[in-house]
Amino acid sequence: MTSITDSAATALQLIASGDAGLLAIVGRSMAVSATACALACGLGLALGAWLGVARFTGRAAVLSLLNTFLAVPSVVVGLVVYLLLSRSGPLGFLGWLFSFKAMVLAQALLVLPVVTALTRQVVEDAEGIHGEQLRSLGARPGLRSLLLAWDERYALLTVLIASFGRAISEVGAVMIVGGNIDGFTRVMTTAIALETSKGDLPLALGLGLILLGVVLLLNVLIALARRWRERSESNEGGREGEREEGRGVPVRTVEAAP
To answer: What mean pLDDT comes out for the span 68-96?
Structure first.
């Protein structure tokens, strides 16, 4: 117990003092995950929104494959990226292996199915509510996907935040393709694994506390996004009611029983 207490105290001192090595690892981890999420979300939002409204032969098979990718272990993604970027692989000429770019690619491939699947579900649910009205106005699938995605932007904001949490907490893929090189490809999760095996518990615990803080912050942002969405929908409903009253249209009528 004393060892744990001492390690926790030292970890808090490292955080409070702004240890250069710790901050470098945290900054690199945030940069990798943010870049990967930006790339994955740019493609995943568009693809998921289209899948939410499109109807084509083989759609069920595509959705089954997409759902399968949700359960792919991160180490398998790391292995695939490693094989692609190795010298004998098809992308070996890029020279990305054991680099920042390799970790971004691995995390982007890991997050892409999550963003696509969640976006598809959100847009498909919205399509079930508003799709018939949009179709009656002549909106084609591409336009409907954009309109519905914009209408569900608060829900999709939650998807983006959740995808960042998935990326920053990943360890297997970045360990394989990044190599955990000190000062170059060492991020929070790989550093925690390494420092724990070396017995440097204060640094590992300090990074763990920061990682927990990041995850907690993401959960708070998700809760705020949901509340923001509920408040926005409530305000829009109130303004619609006021417009109906202004036109002389009763918003709600109650008939008395005879």
So the answer is: 92
pTM here? 0.82
Q: Which of 178, 180, 47, 33 is nearest to 117 (CA)?
A: 47
Where in the sequence is the domain holding 178, given as residue range(s)? 2-230
The Cα 122–Cα 111 span in angstroms is 17
Reference 30, options 157, 155, 213, 225; nearest CA is: 213
- Give how many domains the chain has, as a whole number: 1
Q: Would you say residue 244 lies in a domain?
A: no
Residues in the chain: 258
- Residue at token pair 């002549």: 138
Does a structural domain hold residue 248?
Answer: no
Instruction: Write the CATH number for 14.
Output: 1.10.3720.10
How many angstroms separate the Cα of 31 from the Cα of each of 13, 122, 164, 167, 250?
24, 28, 11, 11, 54
